[in-house]
Write a structure and sequence with these properties.
The protein has 259 residues and is mainly beta. The protein has helices at residues 2-16, 34-37, 60-63, 107-111, 119-125, and strands at 23-30, 55-58, 72-77, 88-95, 103-106, 128-135, 145-148, 158-163, 170-178, 185-191, 194-197, 205-213, 216-226, 235-237. Residues 38-142 form the Expansin-like EG45 domain.
Length: 259
């Protein structure tokens, strides 16, 4: 499996190697956070509890066919009269199809860029110039969570949603096997953060993930995740945390610090 792992790292590293570089763009906002929670990543209403509702839809290069779901970004507007130097911290939960901006934020995240008392002023602008960079997600020692989707049906179909992916990483492959077995079955990314398979092993289940971070990557094993009597709509603790940080690999890149 090692050659396959390194093929995946090579395939995805070009998109993630410059994650910490500063980028210039514009951002707009959704008036309702529910527009983002029902988005392409498949988080549903769960997203409303992420990061106090500071959510974002991002263009396809950042969404990255769903691998970018759950990624965290720091975004700062460049209007020093209205905005703070800290900006806002958002989690990617949807695909942005608006080619005028790299991001569309929840209104809460959009307002968070403003100075005290100026949140309504920034909303009136609608679109603002910003600079952004990807940053590690910090879930305060929260383990990776696997949620069994309602579409799952024993013994023919299993769909899982991956939550609380920490660090600055992307999960690019998922395998599942019966606990104690080395007969791994690959899962397919259904959409966003949801992976599925119609070849469901029997018994309690373990998982392994290929996690990439820039030019680096590795397998992460999660043992005894789903019990033999797993149920749909239930979340299960993977027992592992992801905290890897993307490696730099850009020939021309800012140092990643706010100016």
């Amino acid at each position: 499996m090692a050659p396959f792992l390194w093929f995946l790292i090579f395939l995805f590293s070009s998109a993630t190697a410059c994650d910490r570089c500063l980028h210039q763009t514009k951002v707009a906002y959704f008036s309702k956070a529910s527009a983002l929670s029902s988005g392409a990543c498949g988080y549903g209403s769960l997203a409303l509890n992420f990061n106090s509702g500071h959510l974002a839809a991002a263009v396809s290069s950042l969404y990255n066919d769903g691998a970018g779901c759950g990624a965290c970004f720091q975004i700062r507007c460049k209007n020093s009269t209205l905005c703070t130097s800290k900006g806002t911290h958002v989690i990617l939960t949807d695909l942005n199809l608006n080619n005028r901006t790299d991001f569309v934020l929840s209104s809460r995240a959009f307002r968070a860029m403003a100075k005290v008392g100026m949140d309504q002023d920034i909303l009136k602008l609608g679109i603002v110039d910003v600079e952004y960079k990807r940053v590690p997600c910090d879930y305060k020692n929260q383990n990776l969570i696997v949620r069994v989707e309602e579409s799952s049906k024993k013994p023919d179909y299993l769909a899982i949603k991956i939550l609380y992916q920490g660090g600055q990483t992307e999960i690019v492959a998922v395998d599942v096997a019966r606990v104690g077995s080395s007969n791994w079955v690959y899962m397919t990314r259904s959409h966003g953060a949801v992976w599925d398979t119609s070849r469901v092993p029997t018994g309690a289940l373990q998982f392994r993930f290929v996690v990439t971070a820039g030019y680096d990557g590795k397998w992460i094993w999660a043992q005894n995740v789903l019990p033999d009597d797993w149920k749909t709509g239930v979340t299960y603790n993977s027992g592992v945390q992801i905290s890897d940080i993307a490696q730099e690999g850009c020939s021309q890149c800012d140092d990643g610090k706010w100016k």
